[in-house]
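S.,

Sequence below, as promised.
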Amino acid sequence: MRQIEGVNADLLPQTSKEFDYLQSQVGGLWLEYSSTEEKQTKIISILSYYENKYGSWKIINN
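The prediction came back faster than expected:
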């Protein structure tokens, strides 16, 4: 995501108390960007790729 100009991205820490090698060790993905059609199309394309590979995303608006 950071390769897209104007997109800030960071990983959120895992909040689970129990470690499991079969689960993600990342709690989430934080994204901040100005909403232009070009950026949104690129971001949706990248997120769709990983959604198809690993499962659906849960969107949290703050």
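The chain is about 30% helix and 20% strand.

Coffee later?
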